[in-house]
Amino acid sequence: MNAVSPLFSIVTATYNSMKDLPALQSSLESQTFTDFEWIVQDGASSDGTVEFLSSVSRPYLSYSSKSDRGIYDAFNRSLERVHGRFVLFLGSDDYLATPTVLAELAAAISAASEEPAVVLGGARTGDSEIFESRLGLITLAINSVHHQGALYRRDIFDDFRYDLTVPVIADYELNVLLYKRRATVLQTGILVAECGAEGISQTSNEMALYKGMHELRRRHVGWPTSFAFYLVGIANVARRGRSGSKVSAHA
Fold it and tell me: How much is the pLDDT for 234?
């Protein structure tokens, strides 16, 4: 790892994550590409998480543990400490899909005609199909970018932090903002992460997700346009008859 400015910063928020964290750490340890740092922001865990992190004697790891206001607060705090050119957010129960993921991503970035603002790949939860992230007009209708399947150039966060008043799907706002800015996108087709089934967007009511998306989207496209997409989302829920189901924010 280049201690001054690695290519990748992998950011993880933890809270009582001892049962899951070793698998994530193992997937990082196995990477063939080593120019990365791992920034962990822990929420004052009491289950051995901090002791585990202290036992990982690797130069790529930096961690801090203190009470926070949830996962997006932890992400915001982590962003004050990142040094990499691209930031990847992984949950404590996620892990990199293969030992060559970072090498493949580095090669794709190097081969790009211009440095992208966002690098998109795939993510998979359990036995589900791979979710391929996309950034475009569709992003106004659904959260078409999977947080664990996207790498964001660090300078994007110079003027952006996640909104803690929308605790379930705050990452959606950044994707809308990037679409509005016509940010340069690199679509890689690389499976980036295998994701746990207990992520915040996996265990939230679908209507609450659409409501949160509307709250964030209307700041950038205006209330009438945002509300129209909100109605599309509600109609989609009604059509499937799944208003009380637990679904991903990315569908």
Answer: 84
Q: Is residue 220 situated within a structural domain?
A: no
Which token pair is 56?
Answer: 């990982």
Degrees (nearest 5) of the Cα angle 146, 180, 171? 30
Q: Which residue, among 72, 87, 116, has the nearest Cα to 7 in the 3D structure?
A: 87
For the record, the structure tokens of 15 come out as 């809270």
10 close to 46: Cβ distance less than 8 angstroms? no
Tens of pLDDT, residue by residue over 194-226, are: 998 765 554 457 888 889 999 999 999 999 999
CATH of the domain at 150: 3.90.550.10
Q: Is there a contact between 124 and 130 (Cβ–Cβ < 8 Å)?
A: yes
> Could you tell me if residue 203 is inside a domain?
no
Q: How many domains does the chain have?
A: 1
Q: Domain residues for 63?
A: 8-198
Considering the domain boundaries, does residue 248 fall inside one? no
φ/ψ of 93, rounded to 5, equals -100, 20
What percentage of the chain reaches a pLDDT higher than 70? 91
Whole-angstrom Cα distance, residue 236 to residue 32?
43
Q: Which two tokens stand for residue 234?
A: 């509600």
